[in-house]
């Protein structure tokens, strides 16, 4: 029976196990950089000429709102010059980043299933051949006798090792909660929403 231990030792587990793990790490790094680039590209205006800090990008909303009339006199009859409520134009400046879902993909789980199946088959073939012949000839007083025999034996041995490898990689990624620092910055940006009347 052949020794299969050297066959198993010849497997490069750095490739079979390390390869998918390296790919997962690179994917996580790419996802983090995508978040950074998203914030830079979407959340900020272009950097001003000559350098400096890029200003935050805002989105403006305008609407009309009924507000109490500070000049309303309840003792006077209501009319066009004495209304209880007046319409006021309101403009809100909202940091653009607070209106979007910031991508924050995180690899939650990586399952690597590697199965190596080695099976060996040992064969031994033996074949035997035997042949014999005899001749007898009588010619007046001379007797001829001729005989021959042959024996042949063939033996062959062989070992066959079948190798089967299966590699299955399952990756589970989730849209993660924002990092604490980014969450606090977005809270501060929400506090900076300005209403311009």
List the helices and strands and how they pair.
Elements: H1 5-9, H2 13-16, H3 18-43, E1 58-68, E2 85-95, E3 105-139, E4 142-175, H4 180-191, E5 194-196
Antiparallel strand pairs: 1-2, 2-5, 3-4
**Element string (H = helix, E = strand):** HHHEEEEHE
Find the structural class using helix and strand composition. alpha+beta
Order of strands, widest sheet: 1-2-5
Beta-strand portion reads over 45%
Average per-residue pLDDT, rounded, comes to: 79
Structure commentary:
There is one protein chain. The protein has 197 residues and is α+β, with helices and mostly antiparallel strands. The protein contains 4 helices and 5 strands. The strands form 2 sheets. The chain has a 3-stranded antiparallel beta sheet, covered by helices on one side. It has a two-stranded antiparallel ribbon with strand order 3-4. The chain is rod-shaped, with a radius of gyration of 45 Å.
Question: In summary, what is this structure?
Answer:
With 197 residues, the chain is of the alpha+beta class.
Name the descriptors.
197 residues, alpha+beta, 3-stranded antiparallel beta sheet, two-stranded antiparallel ribbon, 4 helices, 24% helix
